Here is the input.
Amino acid sequence: MDTKAQERGYDNIHTACSYANSTDEVFQAEGIACLAWRDSVWRKCYSLLDEVKAGKRAIPTLEEVIAELPVLVW
Here is the structure.
């Protein structure tokens, strides 16, 4: 997530999300997008973990996890 936020010049995902309350329209929109994306990425990760714990799927590889994650839409 940090690498993706850095593509727009933010230090990391945390600082990008902090702009969700910005008074600047562009920064605010980017902050809101990052905040929503961060939430959806973590929700997906916990969903995958629950599936593994329940025996519904095998432990995915890192590449498989990344391929299933939501994409950030600026």
About this structure: The chain has a mean pLDDT of 98. The first helix runs from residue 2 to 6. The two ends are 13 Å apart (CA to CA).
